[in-house]
Amino acid sequence: MVPRFMSDTPPDRLAVDPDSPHHDADILARGVGIRFKGVEKTNVDEYCVSEGWVRLTVGTTVNRHGKPMTIKLQGEVEPYFRDAES
């Protein structure tokens, strides 16, 4: 159930990692999709619309802290709520 006070626009910055200050479990539970440079991406770990970047997970490799390895790419970021599509 989505609270009524939530807007139909995803936040400017959002992260999947629960340790990040930009993590929001309620918004992630609603389902956020990302288009990066016009292409749908399913491996986005974090994004920022105002700065124009996404952080994508790279394979199954993890760093020394057990977190997935990521790569940061610059470009146009378009987040949307998946439930708004239907």
Describe the structure.
- With 86 residues, this protein is mostly beta strands.
- It has one domain.
- Helix content is 7%, strand content 44%.
- It contains one helix and seven strands.
- The chain has one helix spanning 25-30, and strands at residues 13-15, 32-36, 39-41, 44-48, 53-62, 68-74, 77-81.
- Strands 1-4-5-6 form a four-stranded antiparallel beta sheet, with no helix packed on it. Strands 3-2-7 form a three-stranded antiparallel beta sheet.
- Strand 4 (44-48) and strand 5 (53-62) form a beta hairpin.
- The longest helix has 6 residues, at 25-30.
- 12% of the residues are buried.
- The mean pLDDT is 89.
Q: What would the keywords be for this entry?
A:
single chain; 86 residues; mainly beta; 4-stranded antiparallel beta sheet; 3-stranded antiparallel beta sheet; 7 strands; 7% helix; globular
Summarize the structure.
The protein has one helix and seven strands. By secondary structure, the chain is mostly beta strands. 12% of the residues are buried.
